Task: inverse folding
């Protein structure tokens, strides 16, 4: 399939590489050109603008930092919307707001272009290995057409509904389950340390109990108190918590746990932790306990 | 080994049965006698009081509802403390307060009796199958002596420290990680429902993401909105959250997430959910979202 | 002074009436015309659009529900921005977001028009009596020019700074102090009732202790459990809490108390209390206590 | 009236002095004798134990730090319970737990002694000036008998009910309204500072709006960032928040705002603020905002 891929950060570069390796013709674009050039060895073609990446493509992925960066790439000067053919599909895999997803769906529809939200779960290593979890939403016919692409980038695909924003809501809810684990571990480890009990014992029991790689990985980071380099920066985690709070506020559902975590993340940001891994949220609980 | 076992509820009966089946001589006592009689088929002997169960035993387990019930069985009329031999060990497997564990340690020490806190993780099925997780704390020499018993009742044993209360702290911290999952799922499912998105999609993604039986089991209960019969009653979960808050308060560590959950559990109790499974906490998030 | 006044709800009509009564030439506009006509008896002139109200005025007030309504009246078809003379001043007295206040300041500056944010504290009775508290921010020279108008509508004026949005931040922070009182009273009254103690006793003590009309008025409403008709609707209170949370989030200050209240207000909204007085927030605490 | 007075700290010494000045025969006792000796100039007699202070008295006040200190003075060696005549009244004015108040009532009843809980609102200056607010509960006949004493120490007396603990519940609920103000001011001032707005402006507006000495006094302390010497130590404030949480937990009423404040107070304690005024709680909000 002829594809465009816009946004080649930690996540996007692995996804684009896998698509190219699977035999698709992938034209890539990235704000800083050297990251795009690195993809040519995998067979990708270089575009000089999002529009050029979208030109002639059956589907074009965006994998960018946030709503703002996506807006630039789609609607800005030489944005993809100006070049995407009628009938072709824009697949937004970034974690964007439900509100912006609705805007994208509406703007693409006006131009007879297809639109799918297809955010992913997984860290850069999973992106590189083609082992992401893909949550997609939008018109069934569109999903069916690009399903083989999801099979390339991920190990499982979940269909969240017929309206694209539904996938974005599922994604930010899923992220909340992860940061909730981090906050929980941060609090209990601080309590144990303050009491003079070794947190590693609880960690071992938790690993047996929950049997979850999420607990295991984040727990190990917190026990070691090692948060750099960041796999996922705390400031990006804060962005995602803001997104879930905003979506819940719009529909009228209280999220007290997300509110609490939002406030702890702000305290972490004020404490200079924005570029550390979001697991460093645990340092706030530790500070509040005086350990 | 000659053993006593006091408290034959959902958890204790499975534990005592496994100890008897492993060839130990187990004398059992329970407040309501018929539960004790049910154990005779497994080879257990019946005692007419905690003291009688402790008489001559090398170790005696207590597996009772709370501090109060344990206090009765230990220090009450015909309590085990009056009969336990010097050098024999009281193993308290109930979820009791760290403060009461210190009291037990001190009182037994005065009488040259040994004392271990050995709370367990796992539901009744795990107790029946001998697959509990045992967290034990106390003098190493005592732990070494009864370690074979833990191998009978559990699939793994974790040593939390040399002071018995440390195991109790690890236990209530571990329970907090479970109820935090329930609160998280309750909030995100309520948000999804209010938005018109099917929670099952997130559940599928979460199961792939976290790969944890805890998420899987509780998530399924919440998606089905089925909380009876209770595997673990909400009022007992509230007791455990109180214990972790109390222990953290004593050492001066704030637990904002536990505070939030405590308040949600009280609202659930006021809503008549005390005897439902503690997963029904999710109903409070649903009510607050109006779904 | 020749003035325009846009927005004649519970608050605006009292303010406009007082300005006319003080001898100013006031041209008024309101979306529903009958409210504007009611002002003619006080000497006000009728305009058929915001632009007409602004035409030739030295200053024009807006007193509208929110950002959206203000945007319509300022930038919409026949909006005031198209008619306001260079050098004339737009005074926005509504509770609007700090972000929108910055937008207004910037847009007016482009047109050489002056802009002040001048939100007010006080209920409709205070507006009618010219006893509001005015918080104003913007260029000192502009404030000096319209200070006499604030003396007409209010009993005291506070200058929050040289940038208009600063007044809006002070306003939403001030509102948070009021809703925090309501939440506090709701919680303690629910506790007293659940315990079988008459809340009126605490109310009497609080009135002596705090000596504040805010406690007195809201406390009386909560003790009587009477929340209709609304003096200030809960859904508007929720809007204001959202504004303070947004402003704090932008600058990176956590507001855990506002987060908690936001979530309680959402639960109240889901419970059908949107059009009741915001003091009805207390009903959520009562429900959670089961009283 | 022949009186005993036990506990001559900042509050008790002013109360005892006023009772003596009003013509009552007051026998005083304090753990550190010099504070008791200071009262002799006001006509007080010295006792060498709580029992001696209670001997022959018609009523004996206790004004001590907490449950523990009160328990010592009442039930300890030479405690007042051993000497108080049948028919005489113990008036506990300390802020004690509702649970301990029930214990006191029951123990005194066994001995045909009267018991009233009569906690007070007010700072040391109010105690010295006889301007406290007294909240009393217990048998009406007893209250009637000692009402003239309350008129000496206070400017108003509120009757909370027929069971003594009811006064203690009203007291801790009242204290929650004060610390809630402190938390609110701390959060909004931190937000203003982080935004570059002078908090004094909001303080002026709040003083006009709320017209409350509580806002005024604590607001001034927070604006000046001056928390020593402590009028009321943060660690004592934490004790009171624990009491209200415990009482609410016992009756099954959630107090999310008190939970939040409890956790902030613990963070303040871990930050070394235990002996500062409880208004220093505001420093936690400031730290979390990075100002």
Result:
């Amino acid at each position: 399939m002829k594809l465009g891929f816009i946004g080649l950060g930690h996540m996007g570069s692995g996804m684009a590489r896998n698509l190219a390796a699977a035999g698709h013709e992938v034209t890539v674009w990235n704000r800083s050109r050297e990251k795009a050039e690195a993809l040519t060895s995998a067979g990708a073609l270089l575009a000089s603008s999002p529009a050029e990446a979208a030109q002639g493509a059956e589907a074009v992925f965006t994998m960018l930092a946030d709503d703002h960066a996506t807006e630039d790439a789609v609607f800005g000067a030489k944005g993809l919307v100006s070049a995407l053919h009628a009938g072709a599909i824009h697949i937004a895999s970034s974690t964007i707001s439900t509100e912006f997803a609705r805007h994208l769906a509406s703007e693409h529809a006006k131009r007879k272009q297809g639109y799918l939200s297809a955010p992913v779960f997984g860290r850069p290593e999973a992106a590189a290995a083609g082992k992401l979890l893909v949550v997609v939403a939008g018109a069934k016919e569109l999903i069916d057409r690009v399903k083989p692409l999801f099979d390339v980038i991920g190990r499982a695909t979940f269909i969240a509904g017929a309206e694209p924003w539904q996938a974005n809501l599922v994604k930010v809810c899923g992220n909340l389950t992860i940061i909730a684990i981090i906050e929980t571990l941060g609090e209990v480890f601080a309590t144990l340390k303050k009491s003079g009990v070794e947190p590693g014992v609880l960690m071992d029991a938790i690993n047996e109990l929950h049997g979850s790689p999420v607990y295991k990985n984040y727990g190990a980071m917190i026990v070691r108190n090692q948060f750099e380099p960041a796999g996922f920066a705390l400031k990006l985690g804060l962005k995602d918590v803001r997104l879930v709070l905003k979506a819940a506020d719009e529909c009228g559902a209280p999220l007290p746990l997300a509110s609490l975590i939002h406030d702890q993340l702000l305290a972490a940001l004020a404490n200079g932790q924005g570029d550390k891994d979001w697991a460093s949220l645990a340092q706030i609980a530790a500070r509040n306990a005086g350990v």
Observations:
- Residues 165-195 of chain B form the longest helix (31 residues).
- The CA atoms of residues 198 and 231 of chain B lie 26 Å apart.
- Chain B has two domains: 2-163, 169-289.
- DSSP finds 13 helices and nine strands in chain B.
